[in-house]
Amino acid sequence: MAQSNDFQPGEKRDFSGQKLKKLPKEVLALGSDLLYLNLQNNRLKCLSGISALSKLRELNLSSNDLSEFPQEIEQLKNLESLYLSQNGIGKIPEGIFSQLGKLKFLKLSTNHLKGLPSDLGQCKSLWYLNLSNNYLKDVKVLEALCSLKELYVKNNKLIELPAGLFFNTELTMFKADGNPLSKPPEEVCAGGVKSIQHYFNTLGSSEQRVCRVKTMFLGSSMAGKSTICYSLRKGLPVLVDAAERTVGIEISEVLLGGVHFLFWDFAGHEEYYFTHHVFITPQALVILTINLGSYDVRDPESFRDSVSFWIKNVHLRVPGAVVLVVGTHSDKCKDAEDVQKKKADIEMKIKDMLEQQRANLERWKKNREEDRKEPAQFSHQLTDFQQCTEHNLKVLDLVPMDCTKPEEIEKFQRYILCQVQNKELFPNIENILPKLYQDVESSIEELKEEKDIPEHGVMSFDEILKELKGKLENLDQKDLQPILRYLHRIGIIVWYEEIAALQETVFVEPSFLIKLFKTVVRHDLVNQLEGISRKQLIEENSLAINQVKWINDLMAKATLHNTAIRVLLRKSLKELDIDDEDFLDEIVGTRSSDGMFLGLLRQFEICLPAKLISPLNPEASEFVPKKKWELSNTSVRNRDGACLFPSHLKDNNVVLKMWGEDRKDDIQVQVYFLPEVPHGFFHRLIIKSCSFYPVHWVGKDHCLLSASDRLVLLKETRLRGDQLIEIRCKRQPSANASTAADIWRPSWDMILVVLGRLTELTQQWPGLCLYVCSPCTEDGCSDHFTWPDWKELDVHDLHNVQKNEKMVCSNGHKHRTELLFPKVGSHSAVPGDQLQI
Ligand SMILES: Nc1nc2c(ncn2[C@@H]2O[C@H](COP(=O)(O)OP(=O)(O)OP(=O)(O)O)[C@@H](O)[C@H]2O)c(=O)[nH]1
């Protein structure tokens, strides 16, 4: 790719971000002298006259309003680099690319392309091609691009990839996430070109077609999820006892009409949802179960609890999911008319809710488009909005059902089968897999039966590979990786490759893992503590007096003593009939060493390790008058150890007492969440941020972090109907700071660390869109200053894009720039110079 600085001053022109609607005459007059032209971020709809620039080697037309591919480009026979991303191009006519024999670099991402012209294959020098975010179903033509080194086809509609693409070209970089791929499946592509080549090589003649779909049952407690699950499995109504509540998630497999359904039955209590979201994975069928009998059309709470809570969370976590809504207990409704009334009400409210969310996003997007002053710096915020508005949660019409009737169960079986076989809804339930996949899966089953895999099923990648090699001699690491990724997607195992701390750990028995979590992540934790027997206390060398303290500390400080966790865990493991003492010790741990369970809780960011010495700051050491106060020794583990579970926090009193009043001259950053702050997000942010700043105070939706003389407050709040997390820091001039920017540096350091953690977290919710700004702090002014694309910049850039000493809001209020944006000196604010995102 040519760079603008490869050209002499007279050979290049930059007209980016000038709201141009047509090509400026002065440019066209340059004719064959011009080699480089940058027209990105304008409003161009056509390019009449561009053929005059016959020697052009690089042309940047990204972020314009082109809806048709400009035909005149065919005359720019010297073009080497062409940028056309973020336009609305729907079609490329035949015969253009056959004229562009020198083209090396082509960017066509984020357009509306449904197909590619056959002569694209004639661009034999093309080494970079970006076609991401289009609607392509077929890329066979690219097999002819023998020089191709980098290819991006993310977020298209590709089902199959042509094998020749990976054997005839020089491809080293290939990205295809977000396609409904069945050959090869997405998880093979995630392993890169080598993994795809390996897939096609091993596929050979051993090709197997496998139809499988992970099916997740979500909905409030008592809605009838387990009843449907069991009944579908049996093909007959199975009535579950009302006292029998699902704890955690139950997993089972059912074969219906040639399709394997992996049922994941999630417990309905909202408290359980905190650990559920990590198990809600893409490309699955979601069955949202609603109890029609108890649903009340006049009560907004009824819709919130039984419908919107679930739909909103699915939307944030798996934005492209298909949600099938089923209304159980139709026999408990007054009559058929009542059933229809409730059905119509729920469908209408869902439609309204999704439309409102969409309209809100559009409104934000439009605002951003209108007030973009230096577009290049804000283009990513816009792209985020664009992508969010394109997410399309498909919610199917509600199916009313009486789970006590055999004919309704049969009808529902046929219905879900019909839905998953609909290629529009589920383009890739069929996967074409090498036989090795089946061999590995069967071998895992055998190893379980032979007890070579421990009952808890928690193993390192290397251990599982070693065990499997005993059965499949030639299996190696590169074979196993995509197979485990596939088994994770369809719900047979759990493997969080993307979480650094869990990369090496494979959970071969997901339901066991989930049951363990439910020991402590549950709505009735206080009851569980109260229910501990004397015998169980003695086993952990504890007394009844300890039990009272455990309960009090949980209720007052949301902290659960590690000893109490051990007692509860031992109890639930015994209930699961696990009595192997060595195994129990390994999981439960002892007073002097943490068991595997505590490690898992922390790795999954469910709780924060804490100490119980100070009521304000669990990590701080005790203050004794006249004795030197020392920093707490974090290496002393477990003695007095406990875990903080933020979901049990009831108010913000402790935080507010330390922080005092908000002040007008606080520096403030607002992070708007669209459509909303996901359930459990703030609690995870508390855990992440407090792990970084050990001196902290926490509350229900507030958290205060401290480092040297700085305090940074985070709070989840609402403003004019929008949800946001606000980050504040009080003015605290440092005695030895020489400039105004230096005074604020330590505060911005902390804010940037928090923002880094926050962004890291948002990756778990792909349906989420963030908008970051600093508000104008004048009384009554609602204007704000948009942050540039801070995720993309390093800290120095962030300083450089704010050139002014003062900035003025649209209502004329002046602010010093260092109070609005991180203005750092010559050294970096965050270790490593780059925001750790
Ligand atoms: N009459 C009637 N009873 C139903 C129907 N569906 C479920 N039930 C009963 O409703 C109760 C709750 O059903 P479950 O299947 O346990 O509910 P769940 O959604 O799994 O609840 P959690 O385990 O708490 O998440 C059970 O007693 C079922 O027998 C139905 O269509 N009609």
Automatic annotation (TrEMBL):
UniProt feature coiled coil, ranges: 336-374
Keywords of this entry: Coiled coil, Leucine-rich repeat, Nucleotide-binding, Repeat
Annotated PROSITE patterns: LRR, ROC
Roc domain boundaries: 206-423
SMART domains, per database record: LRR_BAC, LRR_TYP
GO process annotations (BP): regulation of signal transduction
SUPFAM superfamilies: L domain-like, P-loop containing nucleoside triphosphate hydrolases
One Gene Ontology term, aspect cellular component: cytoplasm
GO molecular function: nucleotide binding
The keyword Signal is assigned to this record: no
PANTHER family: MALIGNANT FIBROUS HISTIOCYTOMA-AMPLIFIED SEQUENCE 1 HOMOLOG (PTHR48051:SF55), PTHR48051
Protein name: Roc domain-containing protein
